[in-house]
């Protein structure tokens, strides 16, 4: 299995270009199934999850022209669409559920075997199904008890839907189904993440009539047909946040290009509270951690625009080296502290109680053999490896490959002492 070997490194210096957003491109690729015409998606990051989504779309009958060396994917599904998603692909990527709405639109049926829970939580889909039932979809309850979504619909009809939790995936699945339903759908307590806005922009270019994406109430007026379009994916705000934290916690000075600061207000605010210097220039965002020792701060993860749960573990890496104690509360996922044990192997001495973690900070960290417990946690332990004495060996790095394009090359270009070894 491949590993990262990370040595204590000099402060990160130089510039890095952020790739397209994984969590925007996955729903947009699924939405390409809503038309028989060709869609060309640009600024696509070359990631494992994108690869799996390409394979999933092909298995459903789409033709996919993958040019990830040019960060471009073309999708055309003018032929027969298969309504059953293969389990071997779905179990590799939970985001496979995002094809649910499109399959129902194209074939009137969808069968998706749900993978079990994952490292960060049980990841239910009852809100996705609540929305689809409201639009007239029938879900086989027997099959559902066996972890299989077996959905059928004659005609999708608009409705008003309230999401008990602003689930990103449920919002995306419902928007895609409602876009071609008869009549108007109003989605209340919708997720407000920038990736939802990018999906809505893509669908509106195709001819959909979606208003309010990015707010908690989204109105979708169903149309009869959507056309093929081309679209540039927004930059990945979590990759950007990860490099911002890396620059700050190593005492570095980094120019981050292809970044939308409006998508990172909470992360910018928290880094400034810790004493990092952040300035937006015409070329991009300058992040400096060389203005003095980092101070501690407290973090509580929330749905957007709150502090993003995906930035919880990378930011905790910074808090392990900040001066003084910090408190981190994780409110979005029920089990997203798997990385705490890995930080503690390096001497961080973090205590947790339920969804609350206390990071004492200021402890000298030493390199250790650690595991990437999810894709963000994998990036987080690499960051602590950059400041820990000695060598940190990170295994299960396939997680990192899911969400960070050319992670090692980008870090090495900033002076990081990291290498990938394939055993
Ligand atoms: C998306 O996952 C992202 N993935 C996740 O990023 C991200 O952490 C998450 O949103 C929250 O921002 C993609 O976009 C592909 P949710 P998703 O439905 O859609 C509960 C990464 O690192 N919930 O908003 O699965 C759920 O259990 C990944 O890139 C229900 O209870 O997230 C969780 O606790 C990790 N019932 C919370 O809501 C439901 O029906 C947030 O889940 C649906 C969700």
Which labels suit this protein?
alpha/beta; binds ligand EPZ; 4-stranded mixed β-sheet; globular; 423 residues
Polypeptide structure, described:
The protein is an alpha/beta fold and 423 residues long. The chain contains 15 helices and 24 strands. The protein has helices at residues 22-31, 48-59, 87-90, 100-107, 126-134, 141-145, 168-179, 194-205, 237-249, 265-273, 312-321, 340-345, 375-387, 398-403, 407-413, and strands spanning 2-7, 13-17, 39-42, 63-67, 72-76, 84-85, 109-113, 138-139, 148-152, 160-162, 184-188, 209-211, 217-221, 230-232, 253-257, 277-280, 285-288, 299-301, 326-330, 351-353, 356-359, 369-371, 391-395, 418-422. A four-stranded mixed sheet has the order 22-23-1-24. The longest helix is centred in the middle third of the chain and has 13 residues, at 237-249. The radius of gyration is 21 Å and the shape is globular. The termini are close together. The model has no long low-confidence stretch (mean pLDDT 96). Ligand EPZ binds at residues 22-23, 26, 95, 121, 123-128, 165, 167-170, 191, 309-310, 332-333, 375-376, 403.
C-alpha end-to-end distance:
5 Å
Q: Beta-sheet strand percentage?
A: 15-25%
C-alpha geometry: globular
Say which molecules are bound, naming each kind only once: ligand EPZ
**Count of individual beta strands:** 24
Query: Helicity level, as a percent range?
Result: 25-40%
Structural class: alpha/beta
Give me the number of helical elements.
15
Can you summarize the main beta sheet? Answer: 4 strands, mixed
The order of strands across the largest sheet is 22-23-1-24
Catalogue the unreliable spans. none
- C-alpha Rg (nearest Å): 21 Å
Mean pLDDT: 96
